Each structure stands twice: as structure tokens, then as C-alpha cells.
Amino acid sequence: MKKCELIITDSGGIQEEATAPCIRKPIIVIRLSTERPEALEAGFAKVAGTEKSGILSAIEATLASRRQLPSASPFGDGKAAEKIAEIIKTFS
Hints:
Layout: E1 7-9, H1 12-18, E2 27-29, H2 37-42, E3 45-47, H3 52-65, H4 80-89
């Protein structure tokens, strides 16, 4: 994911991963909607639908624009496991 220009997916999990600070890639969602509206609102994702023409148009537009993506993920900082582990340690 780090080495690609954009990510094409129908997976909500991949949409979240693509916004991680260490990846930060534009996302083309090949569905009619997404359960991750945060990615759309933050400017990472675009819903292209399921038709070939819409998908190709979204890919072309995304590659042509090369716009700056947000530095922060709308889904957090990727350190949830570390934070949870620290909390659990306080109960030992």
C-alpha cells in the first residue's frame, strides 16, 4: 500500500488502513456507498460506483489531481493497541 499511487477497494477496512499516517493514499471505493463516510469527508476517498466508466473516471481524476491529503487519519492515530495495553497494565 505504501508504494502505490492510489487504492481501489470495496473493503471498509482497507479504507481505514489507507488513511493511516504511514500510508496516506487516495482511495477509490468501488461500491455505491461506503460505511466509512469519515474517509469521504476528510478527502481520502471517492465513491466511484460499480460501473466500469465511473471507476475509470474516478481513477483518472484522482491521478490527474494529485492533491494533498490530510496528515491525520479520521480513524485515529494507529496506536490504539498500545494505549489499550498500557491501560491493561494498570490492572495488574
